[in-house]
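User: Sequence in, structure out. Go.
Assistant: Echoing your sequence, followed by the structure tokens.
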Amino acid sequence: MRRTRVRAAPDTPALPWLGGALLAALWLGGSETARQALPALSLLAPLLYQAVRGIRAADPALVDTGRSHDLSGWSLYWHVHLPGALPFILTGLKQGLGLLWLTLIALELFATPTAPGIPQWLGNGPPDVTILLLAIALYAVLSLGSGALVSALERWLLRWRPR
């Protein structure tokens, strides 16, 4: 029987990123561009970092074997580097999704003028706990769903890999 587990927190320390995302949203004035750029950056930064790590970690023996079979350029990348980097890329996708959801929650609840968390944060009004709890529950369901999708994608793409 296989065990499954749900992680309560992403693999990377996300609190410094969360504070930086809120500060960046305030500096950029809460514009629509900032609300689109920050989630994209939160997803792409770990993904690109892990992709570069995976490509650099390619086994030199496999690269030499590929070259001895007349692979070069894109064909070497496609048949040797990419399959070796795929576990790293999927790890970056998991980390990026964790940061993406945290960034979206921060932006939705605190970084827009009409956000439901602003009155609580500023102490200007009664907290609307129902809306906040509903938003948090919705983000939790979406986060768990996206994590399950990436795990299924990982199982399918890395089915050649021993467990």
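User: And one key feature?
Assistant: Residues 73-110 form the longest helix (38 residues).
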